[in-house]
Amino acid sequence: MIRVNNTEAFALIDLSNVSSLDLFKHESITLGHLVLNPADNQSYTIIDRFGSLPGTSTIQKAFKRDGVVVGVTITSSVSSTLGSNESVTVSLSNRTSAIDTILSSSVRCDARSNVYDVTGLNIAFNADDRYNVIIDTPAWITQNPQGVTWSVVLHIRYN
Prior knowledge:
Elements: E1 2-4, E2 7-9, E3 26-31, E4 43-46, E5 61-62, E6 67-78, E7 87-94, E8 99-108, E9 113-125, E10 130-136, E11 148-158
Antiparallel strand pairs: 1-2, 3-11, 4-10, 5-10, 6-9, 6-11, 7-8, 7-10
């Protein structure tokens, strides 16, 4: 029931084309880290939700159930010094199957905020597969960025 101009009415929503289970088949998982001054030619591992610095180890999380990564949103934010225009590469690493999938190789740190939406993905995974996100930095030619935060939102459809 909704109220408009002190009049109560029932809102009718047509869900005839939507299975009740479809509402529970989608999830977005956000991964990020605390502010970092990235080094040249370094691989950073991200598994957290902004609670720690990215690591350089094989820290990993597990998927809840079988599904597919159908898209990602990658954000690169710089709070201090902007970097020169080289790009970092962002990959999803399935540690269980030992398969790394490049999500984008054009993420830059040359503006305060850059957002990259990657759609049309079809990266299958199984329940309990272990995963993390890897950020590979370039050798910045003129200026390394300072005060960087990368976030990656995995858009998932479960089977």
